[in-house]
């Protein structure tokens, strides 16, 4: 034990705050001022009366006490070190300052995948095994999992007193209950039953969800969780009674970490009171007379683990041996691989499986398929009829699989037979325009389903009638299609499928159905024309059939040889496909494909036309025109001109055509499109000019056309990039029929610098590379052999790198533009952008940076743009109910009448020493500006020095040392292995006794030797006293001290 004392005299005063690593040396404690203790007065309350600024919370983490990367969490007069995660292969860290490596898990004996948690208590290293689900005890070596594979139950008797133990996981609850984990695939089973007929609690699975019920003579509690729990996954469930209420908590998917909890109780009903019957617990079922009280009515099949009854673990090893259960959880995955052959849904019944087959499949493994029947094969008249042996009432359902391409035809009809005629048709389902129609009594309006079904693909359809309401089901979607007059299906009625007997009129319902029908049912009764029967199915055998084919058979659609130009015909269902040669396409291979042979000699883009092809190019021009002639090949007059252009020429002639007095000019005037047309049909020429600029170096689409080409004379319109740019309004002229005259000449790019794309007159392309092989009759051909530069190109304006400061040069066609990086501007990005030019800072000065700026706010303002007033009241709250009024860079406290000061922190009028204030424990009172205050002697605190300071409040002792409070001091009792005033020093490796004992022995030996030498010297001296030796005296010298001379004996004096 090392005593630490805060020693003080009239001259000095020491305080050591070890956890802050700060030592204060204060001269004369009576002169202690607030400015010196404000940093720790909050923690130790060692404040003089003037120290009213001790409102700061000291950050004990400021000294960074946590070691080895631990992070510090500041507390009130304390701190906590959170140690980092250990790297793989390293020991974890612990201790108050993360300074100790925890080796409690080295060589641990945790089994079955349990996690080891190292611990350090009173300097002793140990560990705890965190068991996974299904295991228990200190080493997690005992299994808690068992399975129930046959109907039955396990009977357990629990001592009734044990039910009051506090729940382990649910520490907030105290009551009776069961907690377990289960796994099953069955949707209706009883998990446990506790009690008897009159007083019980049970948990069951109902329709895949959980249901718990508690019953007594006084109350009945019931809770339900609807989420699916019978999917074969483990679920953790806890059912308990607490304060008369019933609680059900489930942990698993769709629940948070604490689980999903539902409860019942506290609704004014008397609290539930369990009886002595709760000593009987049945797991996995119950006797039949108790099982009848549940909704499920069946025992549990599945696996259970981690069973706890009233917070007490129940291990399967302790269950009675005569109970029918197995240790572990052995489960066959019946549905993996799929036993239903992909034709049904496999249902896992835990000990077996069941296949719910998709239609039209059936059988134990859905390996069998109901027969399909083909109606109206090769345009024959087909039908099948059935005598209904049972009544189906006014609620019935007709369902079947259909495959057809014929959009019309009768599918199903119900008739009430008469002896003298065909009977009355009172319900019909038929096809009309590829959709399903439903009608009932004559003169009633039919209902229409919103789905097109005659696609040639097999589809499952269903029509359900509920009294008057009709629903149509297709592809899993249900449609309510309307109401019909109510009808009832009676025994003895006739049902017709696919048509009516020959000679009966079916035109009202679209005639006879053509296609395939399969698995046709009226409710659950099969309408089978082939005589199929099954002991497990209801089957109506056909009473009459006509021209049906077994199976789904297509007509021979290729017998008429529909494929042209050498195409090969292939039969599909009631249709055909043609495999055409490379040069042809279309349903019957009737359309020629030209571009597949790459006919464009100059590499242009080939486009197929109905009667030929075109080779599209872009071309670059520098006032080198190309002349064309149609050669009289045009089929009709020209009413529109289309051009694609890219240029920076503000004035140019794009296209010029003439014949006699007829003239067409399309050009650019002042950067806009300009058109002039002169024909024989008009007296004066038509001139119009657009407004939109097209000389910006970008591609533009220009269209010049008659507003109404059907008329002989019409206004003309200019369209640029799909937007109307100009119209001639009242000026009219006719089409450009003169272009087809012999001798008419047409020139493109007569005075133009730039690029042209597709140019069309009347939809006919003007090629830049002539191709005389194109087969279409209407063409423009190049006159002569002009030198045309194919492709669009411009001057390499960016090669010289004109843009500065990292800017990107953008080629704008014979012009460049610079895309500047952030912070630069100018044509060449040569200037630094002044981000402060817009004066963004509202209350402050702006400092410009490259690609940014900084606002330096005036006092009292904050925010990125200095546009927010700092709320000083948030940082300096007024005390004693004072009202804070915020100002610019200041605040004002409006104090109540009894208080004053900047924050209303002082009494008013000010208190006076001796009159109002008496300092206890020798504290010294001084009158100040704002009233009297006490300067406390060391060891005391409080506004009147009335409290003794507890030096142990700060927990100064480290490494588990115990702190003993003393007056104005504390004492640390250190654990083994530590020493020092604060137990912060490790003891040395060599024990102090091993050093002290040898040193003591050495001192004893030295003392013994010294004592022996002194004794021998003294004895020799005594022996020489009383003997006279003249020679010795002579040798000693003639000078002798008188007091050392021997007196002569009397005998010698007589001689």
TrEMBL record:
Report the main location listed first in the record. Answer: membrane
GO CC, one annotated term:
extracellular region
What are the subcellular locations of this protein?
A: Apical cell membrane; Secreted
Keyword Secreted part of the UniProt annotation: yes
Q: How does it sit in the membrane?
A: Single-pass type I membrane protein
Q: Which processes are annotated in GO (biological process)?
A: cell development; eye morphogenesis; negative regulation of developmental process; negative regulation of multicellular organismal process; neuron differentiation; Notch signaling pathway; positive regulation of signal transduction; regionalization
Q: Which residues form the Laminin G domain?
A: 143-329, 370-552, 618-792
GO molecular function (one): calcium ion binding
Q: Where is the EGF-like domain?
A: 57-99, 101-141, 331-367, 554-590, 794-830, 832-867, 869-905, 909-946, 948-984
Name of protein: Crumbs cell polarity complex component 2b
Q: Which organism is it from?
A: Xiphophorus couchianus
């Amino acid at each position: 034990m090392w005593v630490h004392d805060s020693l003080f005299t009239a001259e000095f005063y020491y305080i050591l705050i070890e956890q802050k690593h700060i030592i204060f040396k204060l001269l004369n404690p009576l002169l202690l001022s607030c400015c010196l203790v404000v940093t720790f007065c909050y923690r130790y309350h060692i404040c003089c009366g003037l120290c009213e600024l001790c409102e700061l919370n000291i950050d004990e983490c400021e000294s960074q006490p946590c070691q080895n990367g631990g992070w510090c969490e500041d507390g009130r007069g304390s701190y906590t070190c959170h140690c980092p995660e250990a790297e793989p292969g390293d020991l974890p860290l612990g201790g108050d300052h993360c300074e100790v490596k925890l080796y409690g898990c080295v060589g641990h004996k945790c089994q079955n995948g349990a996690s080891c948690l190292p611990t350090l208590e009173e300097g002793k290293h140990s560990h705890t095994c965190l068991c996974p689900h299904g295991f228990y005890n200190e080493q997690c070596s005992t299994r808690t999992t068992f399975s129930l594979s046959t109907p039955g139950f396990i009977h357990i008797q629990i001592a009734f007193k044990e039910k009051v133990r506090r729940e382990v996981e649910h520490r907030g609850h105290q009551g009776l209950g069961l907690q377990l984990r289960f796994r099953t695939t069955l949707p209706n089973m009883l998990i446990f039953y506790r009690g008897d007929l009159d007083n019980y609690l049970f948990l069951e699975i109902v329709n895949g969800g959980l249901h718990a019920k508690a019953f007594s003579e006084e109350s009945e509690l019931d809770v339900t969780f609807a989420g699916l729990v019978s999917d074969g996954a483990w679920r953790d469930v806890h059912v308990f009674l607490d304060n008369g209420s019933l609680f059900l908590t489930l942990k698993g998917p769709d629940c948070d970490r604490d689980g999903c909890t539902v409860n019942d109780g506290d609704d004014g009903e008397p609290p539930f009171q369990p009886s002595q019957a709760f000593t009987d617990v049945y797991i996995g079922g119950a006797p039949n007379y108790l099982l009848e009280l549940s909704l499920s009515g069946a025992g549990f099949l599945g696996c259970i683990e981690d069973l706890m009854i009233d917070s007490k673990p129940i291990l399967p090893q302790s269950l009675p041996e005569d109970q029918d259960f197995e240790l572990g959880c052995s489960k066959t995955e019946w549905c993996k691989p799929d036993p239903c052959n992909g034709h049904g849904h496999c249902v896992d019944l835990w000990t077996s499986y069941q296949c719910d087959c998709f239609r039209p499949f059936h059988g134990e493994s859905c390996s069998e398929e109901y027969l399909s029947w083909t109606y109206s094969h090769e345009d024959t008249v087909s039908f099948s009829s059935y005598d209904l042996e049972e009544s189906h009432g006014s609620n019935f359902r007709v369902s079947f699989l259909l495959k057809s391409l014929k959009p019309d035809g009768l599918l199903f009809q119900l008739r009430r037979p008469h002896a003298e005629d065909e009977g009355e048709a009172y319900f019909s389902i038929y096809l009309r325009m590829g959709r399903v129609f439903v009608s009932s009594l004559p003169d009633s309006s039919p209902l229409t389903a919103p789905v097109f079904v005659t696609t040639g693909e097999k589809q499952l359809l269903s029509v359900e009638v509920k009294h008057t309401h009709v629903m149509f089901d297709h592809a899993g979607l249900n449609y309510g299609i309307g109401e019909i007059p109510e009808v009832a299906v009676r025994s003895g009625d006739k049902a017709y499928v696919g048509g009516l007997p020959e000679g009966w009129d079916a035109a009202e319902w679209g005639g006879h159905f053509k296609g395939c029908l399969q698995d046709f049912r009226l409710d659950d009764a099969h309408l089978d024309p082939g005589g199929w029967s099954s002991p497990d199915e209801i089957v109506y055998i056909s009473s009459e059939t006509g021209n049906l084919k077994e199976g789904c058979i297509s007509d021979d659609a290729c017998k008429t040889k529909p494929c042209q130009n050498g195409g090969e015909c292939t039969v599909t269902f009631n249709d055909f496909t043609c495999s055409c040669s490379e040069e042809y396409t279309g349903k019957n291979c009737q359309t020629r494909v030209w571009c597949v042979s790459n006919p464009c000699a100059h590499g242009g883009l080939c486009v197929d036309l109905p009667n030929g092809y075109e080779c599209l190019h872009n071309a670059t021009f520098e006032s080198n025109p190309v002349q064309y002639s149609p050669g009289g090949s045009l089929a009709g007059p020209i009413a529109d001109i289309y051009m694609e252009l890219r240029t920076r020429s503000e004035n140019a002639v794009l296209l010029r055509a003439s014949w006699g007095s007829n003239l067409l000019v399309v050009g650019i005037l002042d950067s806009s499109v300009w058109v002039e047309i002169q024909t024989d049909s008009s007296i004066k020429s038509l001139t119009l000019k657009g407004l939109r600029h097209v000389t910006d170096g970008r591609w533009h689409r220009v269209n010049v056309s008659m507003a109404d080409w059907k008329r002989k004379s019409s206004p003309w319109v200019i369209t640029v990039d799909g937007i109307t740019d100009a119209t001639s309004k009242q000026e009219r002229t006719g089409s450009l029929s003169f272009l087809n005259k012999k001798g008419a000449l047409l020139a493109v790019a007569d005075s133009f610098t730039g690029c042209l794309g597709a140019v069309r007159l009347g939809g006919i392309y003007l090629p830049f590379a002539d191709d005389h092989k194109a087969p279409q009759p209407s063409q423009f051909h190049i006159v002569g052999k002009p030198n045309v530069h194919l492709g669009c190109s411009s001057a390499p304006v960016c090669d010289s790198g004109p843009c500065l400061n990292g800017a990107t040069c953008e080629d704008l066609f014979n012009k460049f533009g610079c895309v500047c990086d952030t912070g630069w501007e100018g044509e060449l990005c040569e200037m630094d952008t002044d981000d402060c030019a817009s004066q963004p800072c509202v209350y402050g000065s702006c400092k410009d940076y490259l690609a940014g700026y900084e606002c330096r706010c005036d006092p009292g303002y904050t925010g990125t743009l200095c546009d927010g007033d700092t709320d000083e009241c948030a940082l300096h709250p007024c005390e004693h109910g004072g009202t804070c009024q915020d100002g610019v860079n200041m605040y004002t406290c409006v104090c109540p009448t009894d208080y004053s000061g900047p924050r209303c922190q002082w009494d008013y009028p000010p208190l006076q020493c001796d009159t109002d204030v008496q300092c206890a424990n020798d504290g010294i009172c001084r009158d100040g500006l704002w009233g009297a205050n006490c300067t406390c002697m060391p060891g005391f605190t409080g506004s009147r020095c009335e409290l003794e300071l507890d030096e142990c409040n700060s927990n100064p002792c480290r490494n588990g040392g115990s702190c003993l409070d003393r007056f104005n001091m504390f004492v640390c009792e250190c654990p083994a292995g530590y020493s020092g005033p604060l137990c912060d020093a490790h003891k040395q490796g060599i024990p102090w006794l091993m050093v002290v004992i040898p040193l003591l022995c050495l001192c004893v030996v030295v003392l013994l030797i010294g004592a022996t030498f002194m004794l021998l010297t003294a004895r020799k001296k005594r022996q020489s006293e009383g003997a006279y030796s003249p020679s010795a005296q002579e040798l000693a010298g003639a000078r002798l001290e008188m007091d050392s001379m021997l007196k002569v004996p009397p005998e010698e004096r007589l001689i």
